[in-house]
Amino acid sequence: MTRPITAGVDGTEESLAALEWAGREAVRRTLPLRVVHAWRYAEALAGADRETQHRWATDGVAEAVRKLSERHPELAVTFDVVEGGAGEVLAGAAASAEMLVLGSRGHGPVVGFLLGSVGQQVITDTTRPVVLVRAGDRPAAEAAGRDVVVGQHGAPEDSAAALRFAFETAAARGAAVRAVRAWTLPPVFAYSPGSLALLDEAGGLEPYEKRALAEALQPWRERFPGVPVAEHVEMGSAGQVLLSESAGAQLVVVGRRAHRGAVGGRIGSVAHGVLHHADCPVAVVPHE
Question: Are residues 55 and 183 in the same domain?
Fold first, then answer.
């Protein structure tokens, strides 16, 4: 079954930027595009009954889709106006999508608020990749010479989903992948005879980390031989290293493992930091 790329829209500038990004990506991947708007009847809106409000919402989405279709006549696009809360509607739409594309409001505390409500709920409730796009994103940002940057950590299987997404995206865009692995000195008590033997065999901590990144990338290099790959290993905080390497990127891809607690879902610190501070769209890809 062919999964569409799905874009969530609400009429804001950032959601329209997300719609444009999703449209371009759907054309590149030769996939259909589905546009979803979450709608709720507002009793406080005097003089407008349920049918009228629903028509207003539908007309607004239809107009945005019409403009997108004019720019991309080859694109197969449909739209739905679904009654319900934005988080629930968008997470439900993501379940059958190749990826879900949403708008993000920019840097600073507003982004934190967004991630603390609808954005965070959608990211933690779906098993599909979620791409967040800021207002002002333009096609020029996807020009040649801008890499797709992806974070890699742990064993090869820990980052397989994020690496797959990064290589697929780079292949569709004719771009290079820059794979980033950060490392820190472990506490002395974390050393064991087995780990020390591995480090001795690799020649030290940094060579060990470089070998780990190369091993994680090997199957994706073989699967996508036309995608240039740059490897970067650096000692430091994973989030800071990834953000530093993402300067000038056209997309940053991070993996995430959702954590659930008494107050709801939350995402990992690396994904959270990148979403706050990256200057380009960010794809959050759940671990398989």
Answer: no
